[in-house]
Amino acid sequence: MAQILDQPIVDEATLTMQPWVTIVWNDPVNLMSYVSLVFRSYFGYTHEEAERLMLAVHHEGRAVVATGNREEMERHVEAMHGYGLWASLAKADA
Amino acid sequence: MSAFVRPPVGPVVLRLDEQETSILEQLASQLVDMLEDATRAGLATAVELDPAMARLVPEGYRDDPEAAAEFRRFTADDLVGGKVTAARTVLAALTADASDAAQPTDVSVGHEDGAAVTLEGETAWTWLRFLNDTRLTIAARLGIEEDDAEPFDPSPTSSDDEQDPQLMMAIYAWLGYLQESIVAVLDEA
């Protein structure tokens, strides 16, 4: 990871691959309305997009709520934990 | 019951009666104690021993124990510190209000008039986070593991503490109602 960050030039393939994702997992405690509000407030999603992601979490057990580099996803996961959401990060293809 | 009052102009105010204020005070203070004890014991250990702490400080990586441990090492202290701050802020709001309401000559009044909390901007989020952390903790204690446990089946899954599960369930439901109400207020904004 450090090697990539140290390079002054990041090639386009690396940028567009965006190999990490933030996943939010379903849990029985978090209110659906609260989860949706967090998605809107933190990620800036529209009402519709936030609802869609919240429902995906609820019905499918998990949803990818953000994609990007690892550092960025760690920040998002940390923030989600701050809101009490059950979140983790993983490689996009995992 | 709690009432949300929206004045013609200005922010929404959450009004809590004496009993509600007292319950929230106890919960906030217990949450602070639990989080501070866990911090003293070491969070890496605490999450191993206590399902509530494991839920409040989840794994950042699910398939990589090494990365998960490292993530926790770098984030858990701030995360738990934030939760303590939120609980303390709630506690301060509840106690400040109660003492304001008391007559200076009557030292035994306590929470006679309950509390009124102005839910504005960050304050609303502080309350939401606190209510959520408290609900997560109670759910872990009660062993709530399934969606739609909604009718609040009071059957206890563990009886290793003196807490009355039915009472805990009622409080859990009420906290959910409070949280839902604050979300609804922010939704309108």
From TrEMBL, chain A:
Pfam families noted in UniProt: ClpS
GO biological process terms on file: proteolysis
Residue span(s) of domain Adaptor protein ClpS core: 18-87
Signal sequence interval, chain numbering: none
MF terms (GO), sorted A to Z: peptidase activity
Keyword list, A-Z: Hydrolase, Protease
InterPro entries for this protein: ClpS, ClpS_core, Ribosomal_bL12_C/ClpS-like
Subunit and interaction comment: Binds to the N-terminal domain of the chaperone ClpA.
Recorded family membership: Belongs to the ClpS family.
NCBIfam families to which the protein is assigned, alphabetical: PRK00033.1-1
Function in brief: Involved in the modulation of the specificity of the ClpAP-mediated ATP-dependent protein degradation.
Name of this protein: ATP-dependent Clp protease adapter protein ClpS
